[in-house]
Design a protein that fits this description.
By secondary structure, the chain is mainly β. 5% of the residues lie in helices and 44% in strands.
């Protein structure tokens, strides 16, 4: 459901998904969109400055951080999902002309932004196989499964960091601005 709830043009997206109990665990629940590549600076209030996941976040403190989209990417030897930020209260992605998109949620959320699509990251065997997208690929996740692999004898993700089938409701507010100095 997409709803314009305010006089100032904020866009609220409300999502409700009921995941069938016959399905296995889910890697992520959220929204993915593309925005122009000129929006290349990300500022957020959440965990950072490095990537964090639900089971890999204790070494990252809640604070205000800023990085370019390119700096959010981590070049693992085998390309894979990366660069997630957890416990985000809000994020602002902006361009060099002071235009920005502020994204907020009532609940803490995860986000990542890449110049590579998730499909490209998943299918590439080596970093040289990656192809930059024309746009920024922005992921805003209500839930993101943990990574697991915290020891060599049991690489599975711990039960408390799995996303199980069920009913999930969440929403995001998108605020578009021509002056990011206000944020």
């Amino acid at each position: 459901c997409i709803r314009d709830r305010s006089k100032d043009g904020d866009l609220t997206i409300e999502v409700e998904t009921d995941i069938n109990p016959l399905l296995p665990v889910i890697p992520r629940i959220g929204l993915t969109t593309q925005i122009p590549s000129s929006f290349s600076t990300v500022k957020w209030y959440g965990r950072g400055p490095h990537e964090t996941y639900s089971d890999r976040k204790l070494g990252a403190f809640i604070g205000l951080y800023s990085k370019s989209v390119d700096e959010l990417y981590f070049p693992y030897i085998k390309p894979q999902e990366n660069g997630n930020r957890t416990d985000t209260r809000w994020m602002l992605i902006s361009d060099s002309n002071n235009r920005g998109i502020l994204i907020e949620s009532e609940e803490r959320f995860n986000f990542s932004a890449h110049t590579y699509s998730l499909n490209n990251l998943s299918k590439s065997k080596h970093t040289i196989d990656l192809r930059r997208s024309e746009n920024i690929n922005l992921n805003m996740d209500h839930k993101m499964m943990g990574l697991g692999g915290d020891d060599s004898w049991s690489p599975r993700t711990h039960d408390e960091f799995l996303i199980k089938p069920g009913l999930y409701k969440f929403s995001y507010v998108f605020r578009f601005t021509n002056n990011i100095e206000n944020y």
